[in-house]
Design goal:
The complex is a heterodimer of chains A (about 140) and B (about 50). Chain A contains seven helices and three strands; from the N terminus they run H-E-H-H-H-H-H-E-E-H. With about 140 residues, chain A is mainly α. Chain B is of the alpha+beta class and about 50 residues long.
């Protein structure tokens, strides 16, 4: 996804919302890890790593990833264990519920809903449609 | 008959694959974001890392 955004230069913005599935052991703690990294200014580094390493997302793996991207590991671990960013995750979960979402990933491209792991080419097609609509 | 079923199947499949034309408004403040705030296209991704 980040690749797509960079490809379009300043025309496209990507915003991440968290929708950890409650019956998966490490879904929630991974979202906490992404936000803990965000607090240290390294959200995208951690985000990319979590996607690549999934499903290896247990607590000690996450701490290893924090080390790997050069975070203050002590601060990171404290944040993880205290569920420091639970408020943001709860807010996003509430939003997902209001929007009747049941699948991840779900995308909204200028508000248009696209559900599931669709091919990048398909996402690009929608992005192009939106860019063309803006030109008119 | 077979042909009709085939067309029905294909149209259902395509229908599922196409993005809705309905537009949802999603609050974006306080979420991690990449790219300019005034970008022409904004993609919101709901993600589960696991």
């Amino acid at each position: 996804m980040e690749k797509i955004v960079k490809e379009y230069g300043n025309k496209v913005r990507l915003v991440i919302k968290f929708y950890p599935y409650k019956y998966r052991d490490f879904a929630r703690i991974s979202a906490e890890a992404a936000l803990a990294a965000s607090d240290q200014g390294k959200f995208w580094e951690m985000h990319g790593l979590l996607i690549r390493k999934s499903p290896q997302l247990d607590r000690s793996s996450l701490i290893g990833y924090a080390k790997q991207i050069g975070l203050d590991v002590q601060k990171f671990t404290l944040s993880l264990d205290a569920h420091k960013n639970a408020g943001i995750i709860e807010r996003d979960l509430k939003l997902a519920l209001e929007l009747d979402l049941f699948n991840t990933p779900t995308f909204f491209i200028n508000g248009r809903k696209v559900i599931g792991n669709v091919p990048f080419a398909y996402l690009k097609k929608i992005i192009e449609e939106e860019l063309n609509a803006k030109k008119k | 008959m077979k042909k009709a079923l085939f067309i029905l199947f294909i149209s259902l499949f395509l229908g599922q694959a196409s993005a809705e034309t309905k537009r949802f408004t999603i609050p974006l403040e306080g979420s991690p974001s990449l790219g300019p705030q005034d970008a022409l296209v904004t993609i919101v991704e709901f993600i589960d890392y696991q």
